[in-house]
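Run folding on both entries below.
>entry_1
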Amino acid sequence: MKGDFARVTFDPARHYSQVFQQQGRVLLEADWNEQGHIQLHLLRALVKDLIGPCWAPGTGFSIAGTSTDANDKTTTLALTDWTLSPGHFYADGILCELEQSCTLSQQPYRPTPDYGIGDGKSGFENPPAQYALWLDVWERHLCSLEAPSIADVALDGVDTASRAQVVWQVRLIDPARADKMLDDVTAALNLRLDAHAGDENAIKQQLAKVAALRKQIDGSDTSGNNNDPCTLIRQVLQARQTYACPRLVAGLGTVEGDDDPCVIAADARYRGCENQAYRVEIHQGGLAGGTAGATFKWSRENGSVVFPIMGSAVPTTGPDGNGTLAVTLGRLGRDERLGLAVDDWVELVDDDYSLAQRAFPLLQVVAVDVANRMATLRVPKGITPYAVSASAAKHPLLRRWDQGDGANAQGVVPVAEGDAIALEDGVEVTFDAGGLYATGDYWIVPARVAGGGTLDWPQASGGPAMVRARGLHHYAVLGVADDNEDGYRECCCRFEPLCSLIHTRTEKADVVVAKTDTQATKAVTKAPRVSKTGGTSKTGKP
């Protein structure tokens, strides 16, 4: 959530049930937001515990691979044209909604990360013999630039509250991709095994579980404990969060003195002049280390400094291979702290970029034309910038990041596990060894001037705690397909509304009663008649 927040205080481990406002006290946005988080946590936990992690009412999100014409002729569809039924679906208690039927390739929150870059392919073309369809569910933060309807036009561009939007995407996984996921988890666990000698037994047990999962995927498990395919795919999708979820600890390091009177003394630990909410976000996912390893970016404003893009020119290239890109902006920020300056790193973003969870190189500002609201960005040789959409409906924008001198040629910082990485003003972060990173994983580090310069960071065993990444996704398996067996079969549970079940039961009961009454009437009609003398004839007549 890249909003202008002072901090995010909700922690389910604290078991808070309500936030109380007190008279005469300062009202902070963190308290209001925590109350919303508490309510959501309660509701989603109830739905998940009571019904299950993966279910749908009625026919919501059911998938059809055939179509029937007016003459009752059935045609098998290509996977791209399989249809998704409108309705509701619940993944870990989170409500996913589809208002009208769509095909897999035309789902509303496309493009997914499986879409090709520039070729228009959806990832459903030419499916393998064995695969599964699954639902990737996450929440996306939207400011007034990304969702203009939430802004009141009477305020003339001044924004107020922001929104969170539930995003769901139907995606495909096959055995090869499942193997790659488990290979990455195994590699991460081996890194953790080398770094944490004291946890050797626990990590080896985790490695054994991942190896067993891999054998079941490959069909080489001879133990006879093969799981149901639906359960198996769910375990694969959750393996990163279960065994290799990234963790980070934030702290304050020693810094050299500074003669600048505007900077707080070096012995004050956090040396910034203002309270900040540092956001550390993974840019390129994967394992740490190597030339193609995981990278991150950071912002002292929680990534909330954005500028609307009104237009961009075609990148120009000089004789040395380096180029520039001129971008016209709707505004340049309301002050210097929230504005744009030379040497700032920026990310070109639009709806497609966010939904597909892209991680293109960041670009550096080389010039700012205030009069024309234009920023010129450097495009280094060999770097391909993201081609931001020219359509206002895609909400193109420029997002500022603050990593400064610590960035590489692509504007990001390589993840180096186990070593303290300095951000600024004494703030340091350390990634725990053995993490498998994904684009969008993030942590928020609130820094405070009060108290001599401190960090509002969780504590454990007398020191800063290792904290799991935020922004994790939720997964549900819709169904599995196997050309060698029964074709496609659904994995989720389905329920009719209680009223429908009650009516159905009542109707069945009425039928039973009606049948009983009819049988009783027939029995009375056929019963032998009693004669006046008390005897009966064989025919039943007196």
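>entry_2
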Amino acid sequence: MAGTVRALLVGIDDYLAITPLAGCGNDVAAAEQVLRVRAESAGATLEVRTLRDAEATREALIAAFVEHLGSTGPDDVAVFWYSGHGSQEQAPESIWHAEPDRLIETLVPYDARTPGVFDLADKELAQLLGLAAGRGGHMFAVLDCCHSGGGTRTIDDDVTDGVRAAPADERIRPPGASLSLPATRGPGGARPPGPGGGPAARWVALSACRSDQKAKERPVRGVTRGVLSAGLERALTGAIGPLSYRDIHRMCSAATLDLVADQSPQLEVSEPGDLDRPFLGGAAVLAAHPFTMSIRGGRWLLDGGAVHGLPDVSVGSTEIALFPIGAPQDGAPPPSAEPLARGVLTQVRVGESDVRITDGEGALDPARTYRASVGRAGHAPGGPAGGAANGGAVGGRANAGGVGGGPAGDLPGDAGGDPGRAAHIGRWHDLLDRRNPGTTIPVGTVDVAVEQPDGTPLPVDGTVEVRCPPGQRWAPARIRVVNRLGPRLYCALFALTQDHGVVPLLPGGGAWLGAGEEAWVLDATGEPTVRMTVAPGRSRAVDVLKLFVSTVEFDAQQMQQAELGADASRGLTLDPAALVADAAAVSAQDWTAAEWVITTLAP
């Protein structure tokens, strides 16, 4: 890349009014060194502004965002790296639909909780991130803190590692106390147009943990560090060649689980294609999405399982080929490139699998994470882009016909002789066909409801048909996933679009829902009303809605992929249908899936 990398690094150990931390200054010092090496290797200039402890007041943090990151141009990259306390405050009733626990997530500046000084709320951060990306530059945010109320309530009190969670601010924020900028977008905010009304602002955000977990800090090589920051440093310094954000997330996840239990880094992007964009910017490639492997608990673990399409070991031997992360996924080296090592699956669970190394174990470093190419049962995998790139994780199709109850030909499948496109289409169909016939999750446990904006349910009978009003090419709908019966289940909802995109519809990719809890599909402004859109020149948009429900968390981002078409045709829709299963006790490792065809008709 060319241009400038503008970095705002905020590390707060000492606070005026709350418990201090120990590793945040170490995090931002290491972050500057990592960013400098990466920027220089890409031919870019690095401009850093660092705020430590008393420098990081609420006013100073906002001013640095506006002055330093706000000048990010279309050829530049903005980086915001925050290490400190996260917390929450009461959400106003007007946004309860976007905050199921009725709490706003916050970052805690140095002087927060003093008279008249409030935290930096998530909606305020969204405005600032959108401001930084609003001139067409690329925005990357790292949030090494607890970032929700749920993250402070469900972990035992005897945790020995430091926890970056401040007590909730019980004060009610008065009118006028919040930051107000022109329409901008970060996670959860409204999206502005780009320069001259062009493409909207784009961002990537990596946060330390799920909403029901705590972000921890602990000694790493004798120095106290935030676990996310240490894992991200390990990912960026230990890889060969360029890294995509998808690579970084997987490597961070492996490094985090190697350091602590019960902390899962979360990756959020404004555009699905940015998952495969190189770190610090550049054009995304049409990449395969092979898995990764690392050692945890003394054994080699693959970050994919049955819900990702891996076959059970009872159907035959499934071979694994290991390559360095950073090896190109598209282009050189060719599929015939020799792997560092090979192995076989020995146990497949819902979201991860055990692997036994059969050849080349001496070439592997137990401290590193490797790209894992998976062959079909009984077939050897190919090169770094093999396995998933050669027809899906377990042999998905590369041609499209009828889908669900939809008419054949509505979903195009012409790969045009391009093996990359064929692999992309094959992964789409493999996901569409994925089911678990042996599930024991009871009937009716999870419902998905689609409604008119006024709450009127839309009729559903295997398919959902939505008509756009006269004069416009979109129709509004409200969508929610509801756990009606329990037990607590992990739910992930995807739109399989007409142009072979796979788009997670729930924030963060998925959500844990207990009995009676629900998760809404939100639009770009954080509202629960989404648009069902038909692209110009088309009479309809035919999409497939795919719901996965599991007793254990899995990597939903692994399934995400960008659309092949030049124009977006997605209509974000859903169908209120119960899962079909035997009414039996749910096992500790179980999952199920369902899908429906969604048709949006132009007027």
